[in-house]
Amino acid sequence: MSIRARRDLGTPTLAMLPRIADSLSFLYLETVRIVQDDLGICAQVESPRGTERVYLPAAALSCVLLGPGTSITQPALASFARNGTSLVAVGAGGVRSYAGILPASLTTTWLERQARAWANDDQRLAVATRMYTYRFGAPGESASLARLRGMEGQRVKALYRILAQKYGIKRFRRNYDPSAWDSQDPVNLALSAANSCMYGVVHAAVLALGCSPALGFIHSGTQMAFVYDIADLFKMQVTVPLAFSLHAASNPEREARRALREEFRLLKLMPGIITATQQVLDPSVASETTDRTGDITHLWDPHAGQLPAGMNYADTVTPGDDPWEQ
């Protein structure tokens, strides 16, 4: 088989791309160079034996976490973009910067639902309430958003106390200070590392649905507001207990990433993230099948609704009705 034929076979098509819910959750890389060759995307690792190559399953990855010491070439970046894989650059000390990559064929259905709910105060309040309900159960009918926030704080503190007692930790206080990273205790280190991975995976899921990471319902003022909203739905059940279980780990950050990857595999958290995002945005249509691609582009009309694109509508205009002729 020729090099060109292998390259053509390796180029993804819409039919080849897996659904986001079926994808692997994330892959963490550090101190590697990511390149594209004739066979696919690979990570180059320098070793005493020379340069070794590990090929990456780009089409099946939701998110690639680029740790310290990584670099990536433009062809590799373009291949990730064609596969709809999100890239997240994770800096030293847990400082994060996010780079989102979207396939051009992605549907805007859920983005439009998100934008409508976000722009209406009543609907935004309803979505925020559903988020708290998803985490803690249905509140009382008179519970305001301020009261829900207070209840959230109480339950988080209570969970910290329960887990501290379970693992024999005398005193725990959540602390995130990048300037004093090395002085953090193992639980805080593990929790920051696990949350960083969780944000990356949720970010990938939000982008795969076509939603905006910036239009949050509880959080606001940041490009990652909606990511923080959705990640909060899972922290108390996943990352917080995991971090406390690593209180005696020699390398809590690395162990947290490794264990969280296993949690995603065993608990099938990626489908859960997709489903939860749909449920809190619009429960009435949350059961719809979601894929990375949508229907053909349509045209919007305030009276007729959605109209097919790629059509010439000249016959719908009667002589004398052309506004550009006036």
TrEMBL record:
Which CDD domains does this UniProt record tie to the protein? Cas1_I-E (cd09719)
Cofactor(s) the protein requires to work? Mg(2+); Mn(2+)
Question: What domain of life is recorded for the organism?
Answer: Bacteria
Task: List its EC numbers.
Answer: 3.1.-.-
Q: Name one GO molecular function term.
A: DNA endonuclease activity
Biological processes annotated in GO: defense response to virus; maintenance of CRISPR repeat elements
Q: Does the keyword Metal-binding apply?
A: yes
Mind listing the UniProt keywords for this protein, alphabetically?
A: Antiviral defense, DNA-binding, Endonuclease, Hydrolase, Magnesium, Manganese, Metal-binding, Nuclease
Name the residues that span the membrane: none
Report the Gene3D superfamilies cross-referenced here.
CRISPR-associated endonuclease Cas1, C-terminal domain, CRISPR-associated endonuclease Cas1, N-terminal domain
- Can you tell me which residues bind Mn(2+)? E152, H219, D232
Matching InterPro entries, A to Z?
Cas1 (IPR050646), Cas1_I-E (IPR033641), CRISPR-assoc_Cas1 (IPR002729), CRISPR-assoc_Cas1_C (IPR042206), CRISPR-assoc_Cas1_ECOLI (IPR019851), CRISPR-assoc_Cas1_N (IPR042211)
Q: Name one Pfam family in it.
A: Cas_Cas1
* Subunit record text: Homodimer, forms a heterotetramer with a Cas2 homodimer.
Q: Which family does it belong to?
A: Belongs to the CRISPR-associated endonuclease Cas1 family.
> What role does it play?
CRISPR (clustered regularly interspaced short palindromic repeat), is an adaptive immune system that provides protection against mobile genetic elements (viruses, transposable elements and conjugative plasmids). CRISPR clusters contain spacers, sequences complementary to antecedent mobile elements, and target invading nucleic acids. CRISPR clusters are transcribed and processed into CRISPR RNA (crRNA). Acts as a dsDNA endonuclease. Involved in the integration of spacer DNA into the CRISPR cassette.
What is the protein named?
Answer: CRISPR-associated endonuclease Cas1
Q: Which organism is it from?
A: Actinomadura spongiicola
Taxonomic path: Bacteria, Bacillati, Actinomycetota, Actinomycetes, Streptosporangiales
